[in-house]
Amino acid sequence: MRDNAAVSIRELLSDLRVFDRPLPRFAPEEAPPHPDSLFASWLRQAVRDGVTEPHAMSLSTVDAGGLPDTRIVLLREIDDRGWQFSTDAESAKGRQAADRPAAALGFYWREQGRQVRVRGTLSRLDPETSRADFLSKSPGSRAASLAGRQSAVLTDPAHLIQALADADEVIERDPRTIAGSHTVYAVVPVSVEFWQGDSRRRHVRLRYRKERDTWHKELLWP
Ligand SMILES: Cc1cc2nc3c(=O)[nH]c(=O)nc-3n(C[C@H](O)[C@H](O)[C@H](O)COP(=O)(O)O)c2cc1C
């Protein structure tokens, strides 16, 4: 059964093509000195070209036992404090961040064959930033955060429905209600890599590496 499943997956994948479409040009020699500027320019281009959810990124963390974990979150902001996302500090990723304050981020914009990888340290931003981030979300999203015990075991789906209904009511009564564990985290990069796929496999990789507060750029073999 297991072997049959393996064969059928291989067959299913064998005809799929990657990067077999027109892709944007990337000239690494024209890249700016700071990776945040290049990311902003790539992100603007992604939004302009209609890339689906270009702000969705994988966030990888490591648990206390050293086992990596990964999931998708939304990029909320990039500024001097780092590349930011928000989540429940009591979730699995929140606990992992507390145990091991390091993370990697990954973006894949398939319409453009582009990948961006970030590695760095992870920290919680101040409570005021987290409150402002929470209040900037839609009422539905605020209710979901308020209702949730993210990553806890759900013993009965009815409990979720009830908690969401209760949270909707709370938000409606007092739209300024804040979920106390809602937290903005920032990844402060030590390296950021920009990867442009190419139909002839001449993929371009440009890595920015931070050394003593200065960014260095280097090309990598694909
Ligand atoms: C497109 C997309 C965006 C998401 N954005 C977030 C987010 O910004 N914050 C968040 O906590 N979870 C987000 N999630 C849910 C996470 O992937 C994950 O299921 C949840 O945070 C629990 O992860 P954990 O158990 O590792 O803590 C998103 C999921 C998807 C598919």
Automatic annotation (TrEMBL):
Record domain Pyridoxamine 5'-phosphate oxidase N-terminal: where: 44-154
Swiss-Prot/TrEMBL cofactor(s): FMN
Keyword Lipid metabolism found: no
Organism superkingdom: Bacteria
Protein keywords: Flavoprotein, FMN, Oxidoreductase
UniProt domain Pyridoxine 5'-phosphate oxidase dimerisation C-terminal: residue ranges: 183-222
Record-stated family: Belongs to the pyridoxamine 5'-phosphate oxidase family.
Annotated NCBIfam families: PRK05679.1
Protein name: Pyridoxamine 5'-phosphate oxidase
Phylogenetic placement of the source organism: Bacteria, Bacillati, Actinomycetota, Actinomycetes, Micromonosporales
Gene: pdxH_2
